[in-house]
Amino acid sequence: MTIDILTLFPEMFEGPFSHSIMKRAQSKGLLTVRLHNIRDWSTSKHKNVDDYPYGGGAGMVMMIEPVVACIEELKSKTVYDDIIYLSPDGELLNQPVANRLSGSQNLLLLCGHYKGIDERIRTHFITREISVGEFVLSGGELAAMVLTDTIVRLMPGVLNDETSALSDSYQDNLLSPPVYTRPYDFRGLQVPDILLSGNDKEIARWKYEQSVERTKQRRPGLNPDV
Question: What pTM did the predictor assign?
Fold first, then answer.
């Protein structure tokens, strides 16, 4: 998979994309991330990419010209499954959305800033808008990191144990059951005996029951069947 990210602050991605699962995916050749500084497509002397909004109001707006110039140049070289704008009023990111996007070959992510981007970009050049939550961030960079990580960990070959992602919370509309590891007894707090029984069938049943109960308590609207 190739993910092109349009941003005003490409340096923000260096740390998160250089460690753990993201680093592993790139080292294995399963993922290519290309960062593009939108200012490189600005034709102004001072590389400005924002201006005052028509009609007045607080804040600045990202200009259409440099953003579209960047998108069109990249599109001339790559066919994208989606051109995604990270926006607080977009479609809420959830596990089914991540599952679908993980099958993509090429994605382009646009990180907004200031009060947002010129609406004409959204209307005519963006194919999908995604929000990572019902709140406002200072820019789309953190949202792009979250989206990328969510997608990449689902790609075959990225995780050492490919079945791990299948048991994550929100797969099958259930939260994950509680997990334990050594030591068995910590200050009198013990691991449930069923997990040490060696009875795979009963362990699976226990985990399912725990998932159902946790979903009822913490996300009652997630799965209407529980």
Answer: 0.89
